[in-house]
Amino acid sequence: MGHKVHPKIHRMNILFPWASRWVSKGNYAKYVEQDTKLRAYVMDKFKDAHVDSIFVERNAKNTTVTIFAAKPGIIIGRGGQGLEDLKKAIERKFLNMAQKVKLNIQELRAPSLSAEVVAQSICKDLENRIPFRRVMKQNIERTMKAGAQGIKIVMAGRLNGVEIARREKLSSGKVPLITFRSNVDYIQRVARTIYGAIGVKVWIYLGESFVRVDKLSEARETTQNKKEGTPNAR
Asked: Are residues 73 and 138 in the same domain?
């Protein structure tokens, strides 16, 4: 019998880093709850920005939140007003004014290669009553053109509003889930349609990687190289 495990957790700390980076003595449960609610708040508030991932770092005095989004301008707002409002909301709602928040907004290089962004796009199309098979084919074609080596999409529910729920799968290329060095991006989302909930799962295979895939470190290195005026070695 096969044993199914989350593709990203399966490679955590081998290929992928932790999204929350802090050390706590006695406040572990509190910090985990704050991080979970913070991510849910940002993802819900900025749906149109296509947020890919949110990294949270803490020290004794400050909390640094780094958001990777396909459309960062929606989060930043006109004149940076959106950034200030988000900063105040996080400090007030989740940190209880105990720490200062520093926000970093990074633009996602290739949105079509992000399982999170693809799943959000699929859910939006399903909620707009676009036929599910057309949605699957369009997203698969777009992702493969962007340079992915494989993609798999699975949907389950009352597809196209039929009476009986079913499960449909469509894939292209290869998606190896066993090898640790396989860089597989995975996400599970739910589309809330007028007929009920439709589950959406997306796997995107980006090739083999022999080094850790750390978007946060890469973004910092790119920023530092720009400040120093040197080309990025990567």
From this structure: no
